[in-house]
Amino acid sequence: MLVLTRKVDESITVGTNITVTVLEIRGGQVRLGIDAPKQMPVHRTEVFRSIVNENIEAAKTPRDLSLFLGEVKSHREG
């Protein structure tokens, strides 16, 4: 892990197109601004973990899609 010290209004650059700027330091909190391309998702870690877990659960769908579609069809007809 790279550890850096930055002050308010100082930045770090990640790669060639991501800049992280310290906007404010208040008590035990640091406000960061992240400038990244729109196509690059930026999430808080807890949100990212939730997305990953939801994707894992979604991947546990029935492998035989025809069985699943048959169940949906029978519910609609019933």
Q: Could you give a short account of the major beta sheet?
A: 3 strands, antiparallel
Please give the order of strands in the largest beta sheet.
1-2-3
**General shape:** elongated
Number of strands: 3
**Unreliable sequence segments:** none
Provide an overview of this structure.
- This protein is an alpha+beta fold and 78 residues long.
- The chain contains 2 helices and 3 strands.
- The protein has helices at 45-58, 65-77, and strands spanning 11-14, 18-26, 29-35.
- The chain has a 3-stranded antiparallel beta sheet with strand order 1-2-3, with no helix packed on it.
Structural descriptors:
single chain, 78 residues, alpha+beta, three-stranded antiparallel β-sheet, 2 helices, elongated
Secondary structure layout plus pairing:
Blueprint: E1 11-14, E2 18-26, E3 29-35, H1 45-58, H2 65-77
Antiparallel strand pairs: 1-2, 2-3
Please provide a brief summary of the model.
This protein has 78 residues and is of the alpha+beta class. Helix content is 35%, strand content 26%.
